[in-house]
Design a protein that fits this description.
The protein has 365 residues and is mainly alpha-helical. Helix 4 runs parallel beside helix 6 and helix 14 packs parallel to helix 16. About 8% of the residues have low confidence.
Length: 365
């Protein structure tokens, strides 16, 4: 699905800010994880017999069931990030999502409500119109616009004015990004003039780095609606001139993958091998993002990048590595994802479960 980790950039950014919960000690960056002998034995076995073990339909069915059960349980986790990512992942399993989505739509955290509201439209769930109409008037514009998106996607007659208002306001670049993303996903080319108007407007009260990210998402939305000239600023963002440009580079990499920009494949492959703006290696986050984008463009060989970071002490790198394994085709990567279902950090477990669902659902169709 296309509810992106960094985009719903708005929703992801707000998750940490609108919840009083703090991560457990084991969830903080830098915690060293030690795998037990059982885990090492499983990984060793997978290297020699993965092809036969994970090719078994029965084995794959058991693993898929375990991943789905973990995602369902995660919708009730205390950590709002886990809940949000679980609803995102369950879009791949509409029938399962249908059974738990109402609690997501009513979640106390507006980041989770926003993600859940989008998930209804993505999964084409027909039985939640009344709740969506209530959320279309939610106090959070992130939630209300997400609900409107799903109502439109499901063919309901609804006032789209809040989407335009969110796009044209000049105080919150994250909200503008969110609205642009939704308009691009709706796919109505009549929104192009509105998006161009938003792109011309300044946001004097916002930091330039935030505005640049928002500009890239405006370009993405316009490209989705047929303005191919918008690919150029996205491709240009692949070349960071200074360290502060790296976040924009990571977002541009993601967007080009979602747009299916085949012309960027060579540049992305080169980017994975080049140095950063001050001569250092590209950050692991960008390398892993490149691996996923290359997979979306047809190159499934990014596993070698995930192999470098899947046991990292950094939570985000383990989670991102799991996401990469969701796009590869090697059976031994299923063994690693199975191990990651036992990671001490919830968001990593959810990332691994989501990757397993993607791998097993796609390959077994």
């Amino acid at each position: 699905m296309k509810i992106r980790k960094h985009v719903c950039m708005a929703a992801v950014l707000m998750l940490g800010g609108c919840s009083s919960s703090r991560p457990m000690v084991a969830e903080r960056e830098g915690v060293v994880r030690v795998r037990g002998s059982e885990a090492r034995e499983l990984l060793s076995r997978s290297r020699t017999s993965a092809q036969s073990e994970y090719a078994s339909p029965a084995r794959r069915a058991v693993l898929l069931d375990r991943a789905n059960e973990m995602l369902i349980e995660a919708t009730e986790a205390t950590d709002p990030q886990m809940r949000a990512h679980a609803y995102e992942a369950l879009v791949q399993e509409p029938e399962l999502l249908d059974g738990v989505i109402e609690r997501g739509l009513l979640d106390e955290n507006y980041g989770v409500r926003s993600i859940a509201a989008m998930a209804v439209g993505k999964a084409k769930l027909e039985g939640h119109m009344d709740t969506l109409r209530i959320l279309a008037a939610d106090e959070s514009p992130f939630v209300s616009t997400s609900a409107i998106y799903s109502l439109v996607t499901l063919g309901e007659d609804v006032d789209r004015t809040p989407l335009a208002d969110a796009l044209l306001q000049d105080r919150q670049p994250e909200l503008r990004s969110h609205a642009a993303f939704l308009l691009g996903e709706i796919g109505d080319s009549s929104a192009l003039p509105l998006l161009r108007d938003a792109a011309r407007r300044t946001m004097p009260r916002s930091m330039s780095a935030q505005v640049r990210l928002s500009d890239l998402q405006l370009s993405e939305a316009m490209a989705k609606l047929g303005d191919e000239d918008q690919l150029e600023p996205l491709r240009a963002a692949l070349f960071p001139a200074q360290p502060s440009d790296l976040e924009a580079t990571a977002l541009a990499v993601q967007i080009l993958g979602e747009l299916g920009d085949e012309a960027s494949r060579g540049t992305l492959a080169q980017l994975a091998e080049t140095k950063g703006p001050t001569g250092e290696s590209m950050p692991p986050e960008i390398l892993l993002t490149i691996a996923i984008t290359m997979a979306k463009l047809g190159d499934l060989n990014g596993w070698y990048l995930a192999d470098r970071f899947w046991e990292s002490d950094r939570i985000v790198l383990r989670a991102d590595s799991a996401a990469v394994y969701g796009w590869t085709a090697r059976d031994e990567d299923l063994a690693k994802l199975e191990l990651m279902l036992s990671d001490p950090v919830g968001v990593v477990r959810v990332a691994a479960a989501s990757a397993l669902v993607r791998r097993l659902k796609v390959s077994d169709v």
